[in-house]
């Protein structure tokens, strides 16, 4: 009689630990990790975040040139703020599929 109770308690604990491990916030689900295809086929833009809007991120490269890239809900993006050093993988039409923060 005691064995089924122990098994049941073990199963409940395992289920709770699994649920805790799977719980991610929105920024963790959107963490920037470019695919191999993005790295090969897309242009990358490196620089400091100059401005952040609802549908764009403006990046100023080291040579002083600013480039505004489009973003949306599908863009994988680390939590970035103005002044952060980033690398963006950008398509020909200016859409950023991934923006990741990089260490200086």
How would you explain this protein's 3D organization?
With 104 residues, this protein is α+β, with helices and mostly antiparallel strands. The protein has a domain at 32-101: Beta Barrel (OB fold (Dihydrolipoamide Acetyltransferase, E2P)), CATH 2.40.50.320. It has helices at residues 2-22, 26-29, 36-41; strands at residues 43-52, 56-60, 66-70, 76-77, 85-90, 96-101. The chain has a six-stranded mixed sheet with strand order 3-2-1-5-6-4. Strand 2 and strand 3 form a beta hairpin. The protein is elongated.
Q: In terms of topology, how is this protein built?
A:
Elements: H1 2-22, H2 26-29, H3 36-41, E1 43-52, E2 56-60, E3 66-70, E4 76-77, E5 85-90, E6 96-101
Parallel strand pairs: 4-6
Antiparallel strand pairs: 1-2, 1-5, 2-3, 5-6
If you consult CATH, what is the topology of the domain at 32-101? OB fold (Dihydrolipoamide Acetyltransferase, E2P)
Assign the CATH superfamily of the domain at 32-101.
Copper binding periplasmic protein CusF
Annotation field: number of helices: 3
Roughly what fraction of the amino acids lie in strands? Answer: 25-35%
The CATH level-2 architecture of the domain at 32-101 is identified as: Beta Barrel
Report the span from N to C terminus: 62 Å
Q: Per the principal axes of the C-alpha atoms, what is the gross shape? A: elongated
Widest sheet: strand ordering: 3-2-1-5-6-4
Using the CA coordinates, give the radius of gyration. 20 Å
Q: Give the assembly state of these chains.
A: single chain
Please provide the count of β strands: 6
Text of the CATH class of the domain at 32-101: Mainly Beta
Q: Structural class, judged by helices and strands?
A: alpha+beta
Q: Segments where pLDDT lies below 50 for 5+ residues?
A: none
Largest sheet, in brief, is:
6 strands, mixed
| String of helices and strands | HHHEEEEEE
The helix content is 25-40%
Q: Roughly what is the average pLDDT, rounded to an integer?
A: 83
């Amino acid at each position: 009689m005691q064995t089924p109770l122990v098994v049941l308690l073990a199963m409940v604990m395992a289920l709770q630990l699994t649920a805790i491990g799977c719980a991610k916030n929105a920024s963790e689900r959107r963490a920037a990790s470019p695919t191999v295809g993005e790295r090969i086929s897309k242009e990358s833009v490196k620089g400091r975040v100059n401005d952040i809007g609802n549908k764009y991120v403006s990046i100023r490269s080291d040579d002083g040139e600013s480039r505004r890239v489009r973003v949306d809900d599908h863009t994988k993006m680390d939590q970035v703020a103005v002044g952060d050093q980033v690398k963006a993988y950008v398509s020909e039409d200016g859409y950023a599929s991934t923006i990741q923060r990089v260490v200086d």
